[in-house]
């Protein structure tokens, strides 16, 4: 048996970890992201012994300033702090990469926290543009990788 299990989950099941890991200062309604319920959107949950330890959401969405229909956006990826460094984030990201590629995707992008940019670089992402601030959340880079 694998040390974890990946599952497709409804958007509502991403919100606890979005809150605890990414945005503890936000109200529950602020953890509902545009596109969470879109037909192409998928949400992955990573479970260990039936307990959720990570989530990631994937949206068919072009990068800002483009109109591509083959780009996918990673958003709301979160792994409990006590479980980071165990490969769970990489497993969630690979599930997103695989899904987007199966759907004919050509590029995966995200707004990555500056503190997580090394993680994304190790997994094939490149920085595009300068660091920017998401109000109330902190410094980020737009990062992407080909599929």
Automatic annotation (TrEMBL):
<dbReference type="Pfam" id="PF00583">
    <property type="entry name" value="Acetyltransf_1"/>
</dbReference>
<dbReference type="GO" id="GO:0016747">
    <property type="term" value="F:acyltransferase activity, transferring groups other than amino-acyl groups"/>
</dbReference>
<feature type="domain" description="N-acetyltransferase">
    <location>
        <begin position="1"/>
        <end position="147"/>
    </location>
</feature>
<dbReference type="InterPro" id="IPR016181">
    <property type="entry name" value="Acyl_CoA_acyltransferase"/>
</dbReference>
<dbReference type="InterPro" id="IPR050832">
    <property type="entry name" value="Bact_Acetyltransf"/>
</dbReference>
<protein>
    <submittedName>
        <fullName>Acetyltransferase</fullName>
    </submittedName>
</protein>
<keyword id="KW-0808">Transferase</keyword>
<dbReference type="InterPro" id="IPR000182">
    <property type="entry name" value="GNAT_dom"/>
</dbReference>
<keyword id="KW-0012">Acyltransferase</keyword>
């Amino acid at each position: 048996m694998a040390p974890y299990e990946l599952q497709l989950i409804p958007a509502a099941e991403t919100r606890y970890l979005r809150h605890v890991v990414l945005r503890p200062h936000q109200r529950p309604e602020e953890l509902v992201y545009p596109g969470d319920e879109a037909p192409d959107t998928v949400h992955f949950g990573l479970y260990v012994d039936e307990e959720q330890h990570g989530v990631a959401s994937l949206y068919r969405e072009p990068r800002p300033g483009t109109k591509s229909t083959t780009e996918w956006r990673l958003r709301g990826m979160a792994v409990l702090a006590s479980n980071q460094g165990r490969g769970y984030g990489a497993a969630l990201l690979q599930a997103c990469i695989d899904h987007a590629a199966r759907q004919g995707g050509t590029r995966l992008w995200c707004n990555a926290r500056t503190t997580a940019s090394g993680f994304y670089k190790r997994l094939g992402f490149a920085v595009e543009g300068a660091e920017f601030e998401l109000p109330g959340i902190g410094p980020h880079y737009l990062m992407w990788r080909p599929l």
